[in-house]
């Protein structure tokens, strides 16, 4: 399956190069198991120890210039039409190949806006300039951000199906947590239950295990990216979990909110119910507006305004991010206009992208209300990939 | 243990900043679980999602400027004296802090020579320049290569002990392979035996499992970095294995050479024996010359010349590399003067560094002779961390 997707994405990359009118896309790496350009998992699939150039051209040709020790690995993988091995220096075969193709525009992997389009290190950028010194191609380099944004963002039906598989398995574990959690347990106990399910079922976690899953016990839970602690789940408080798996190379990322009933309670107190509904409704309000062409920051506005209008503090993060081979995927996101997000909040959404929607608000004295859904941008709207949480999940005392 | 080593290395970093007269060392990252600056594992230990600055000063102060969502994680880890959280932009707290310290020299992580000193991406370098725009500090930036070279290279007694543990466990598996391997088995069968031992004993592999272990069955084995295949171990041929584990954060990397006796043979043919001895002796000749101050390329010369003088082809790679938290560690190495190695072959060796010595030569009609030992540079020489292979290991038919 991994190989099929590499072939599919390589083909898609050629289409994008034609659409954007870019002659050549050059991924330049060394010791890629140590510092990993995220492009490697998209269109290469095999690590390289020595300096290596992975080139996809607008004309459909793809070429790997690699250390001779690794020729066998690349031949075996069979993804590249041309494999050019070198021994002492990549400079000559690289210049020779580039000169032969004579590209006017060469995209390389750097980006102020997105880590996933920024796999070229500063040292390797300087090495590349040294190699190209004395040629005109040095002046034809520019950022591949747009190419990577399209390639990672626009999911094929194969990719969407894999993401649906990951969601299905993740929600199964959420259901199991509903039956497992009891007042008196610690966050860590719940997290360990979830991790054990992943071990048993051979699922990778979608992000670092220090906070995957993150479990938040009210009334004063940890911050959004903190790991589970020995805080105790208590009657009359809210509990949340943020959790995702990586299955067949694709990630899920989901949050749900529970309320642990107090003795004698049959429903959550009004404050808790209201906090839940404001979050739930803000997600639906965003989903109603999501479609190709809208900007991420406009979507963030909708949820952020609905929450503050209802008297709550705004959430201390973006509304949502793309999702795919990594838990935070793509370039653009449903981000506010904060300096730290660069231009990413202003990029227009595209069909085939998958976003999380994950607003949060504090419910004083009870905990935090937060839901995270996954949606796919369709031709003229969006489609929930997760069946959205419409009701608080009540846990008996 | 991990935390103790982070503290030890942070203290050592301050000493190195004083020795090199560098005021400030700045590690600038984002989404460090996606693109990982190798400095993170040395002196930070906790990943960061938003833009983050990890600063160690010559005066001994260390400071983390991080996204507010992650404040809890960094407080819990307790490694940084100052933790400065931000919400919308790192720019203001970063400039404020740098202005307060007023450094004349700020080392940042880029290097043409070594991946381990090159964790700053080109996009993040541009972001950093944007942040510092309008200050003079923009002009005080330079490469931290020398700092990282010293910090990763000079192993503390604690680190050496951890590396010895990894070696001990690795050699135990080599011994088990000696008893396990039989003519008729495939390379993959041997590799799977080794991998199962690692699973059983909870060892990580020192490098990618596609070629860890690499198993080479003569007479026509795969190239040095190729993974095991369905080639069959055959009587009257040479077998080699290249294998290492990562245990408590430190790697081993060892190669041994076996000969599978033919029916009726009690020792290896003269050609095989000679090929083995030339490799074995070349390693000892290098070890005799290793000491602080010599250059890696001079050491490579010794082995390479001994091998070609004896009529064999030279090996298509460097003589050896440093070893530590990664299998290919540090900056300098026992490398030839090939363009692809940059300045790394010319750096003088230092006390406390750990190198592999791993020459190879082809024995026509039988396979490859290759041994890989690990040595530590001492005050006036070197010490073998692996008990060196002195005799061919003979496998009964």
User: What's the quaternary structure here?
Assistant: homodimer
Q: Report the top-level CATH class of the largest domain in chain A.
A: Alpha Beta
How much of the sequence lies in strands of chain A comes to 15-25%
Measured as a percent range, the helix fraction of chain A is 25-40%
Intertermini distance of chain A? 45 Å
Strand order of the largest sheet of chain A: 4-3-2-1-5-6
Shape of chain A: elongated
Q: How many helical elements of chain A?
A: 10
Question: What's the Cα radius of gyration of chain A?
Answer: 23 Å
**CATH fold description of the largest domain in chain A:** Creatine Amidinohydrolase
Give me the CATH superfamily of the largest domain in chain A: Creatinase/methionine aminopeptidase superfamily
Structural class of chain A: alpha+beta
Could you please describe the fold and organization of this structure?
Two copies of one chain form a homodimer. With 397 residues, the first copy, chain A, is of the alpha+beta class. Chain A has two domains: 151 residues, 3-Layer(aba) Sandwich (Creatine Amidinohydrolase, Chain A, domain 1); 242 residues, Creatine Amidinohydrolase (Alpha-Beta Complex), CATH 3.90.230. In chain A, 34% of the residues lie in helices and 22% in strands. Chain A contains ten helices and 20 strands. Chain A has a six-stranded mixed sheet with strand order 4-3-2-1-5-6. In chain A, strands 8-9-12-20 form a four-stranded mixed sheet, covered by helices on one side. In chain A, strands 7-10-11 form a three-stranded antiparallel sheet. In chain A, a hairpin with a 4-residue loop joins strand 18 and strand 19. In chain A, helix 9 packs antiparallel against helix 10. At the A-B interface, helix 3 and helix 5 of A face helix 3 and helix 5 of B.
